[in-house]
Amino acid sequence: MSWIAFAGKEMFRKRILPVTFVLSLLFVSLYTFGVYKISTNFEGHVVTLASNVSDSIVLVTLGLLFSQMIIAFFILFTTMGAISGEVENGLMLAVLSRPIARWRVYLGKYAGYAFWLVLYAGIMFFAILLPVHYLLHFPIVPMTLLKTFLLFIWIPLLLLGISMLGSTYLPMLGNGVACAMLYGLSMFSGFAENIFNQSGENEMISRFAFVLKLLMPANALLNRITFELLDGLELPLPTQAVESMGPFAVFNVPSGAFVGYTIIYLIVILALGCRAFRRKDIA
């Protein structure tokens, strides 16, 4: 509990929480207004089930994509100096003066930030999904809702682990730039694969995207969320309805084994972070 309180005080002291709250509220309000305007345009028109579902999926995917980007930048700006920043300003010396193992300090800081990130990501998830459900009558199956929710909050936990690992090796700004570029490349490769390599014939794009998925699984897990939303409906959607989703269509769905890989990936990067922090020269 002390690490959760410490992380919360740090984010509030740096004005990160108030700024994020205001901007997130603005984003959700604009998104909900957009969904409402689309729902009013449908009134009086005959809309097929496939068209309604594909439009709803695109809206949900767009909303989840941009909310994930907001959450990602929130994580990067909050934790890019989680270790190196506190070493530079001397705060870490005060923390390590207590009789506590360094690996416990590292995991404690991770757990403190993770609590607030899961809370924030959970609120954003339902703020995106519920307007489409109530205004466009997009069906939600409880098991699908649970799967997509767990995948959605899993992505910030991975980003947090990567950012904290980078913070043990790189200065604050260097870590922020490196993590942001890696995240951006992951997003770009995912869109490039959906647009230019739907059939998987271009091996170079496939290999490039695969390597980036292994290093930064965020975009791949977002594709898995879209797949779960479509698969959970159990509707015979025509191929044209899926292809009409453009770059948001899912042609190369990450398997369940890949989701399992991300669990091992997080354990490994946390272990590497603890090892690097234990060996870090802090004087």
From TrEMBL:
Domain of life: Bacteria
Pfam families linked: ABC2_membrane_2 (PF12679)
GO molecular function: ABC-type transporter activity
Protein name: ABC transporter permease
Keyword Hydrolase: no
A GO CC annotation given for this chain: plasma membrane
Keyword annotations: Membrane, Transmembrane, Transmembrane helix
Record lineage: Bacteria, Bacillati, Bacillota, Bacilli, Bacillales
Stretches that traverse the bilayer: 16-36, 56-77, 113-136, 148-166, 172-192, 258-277
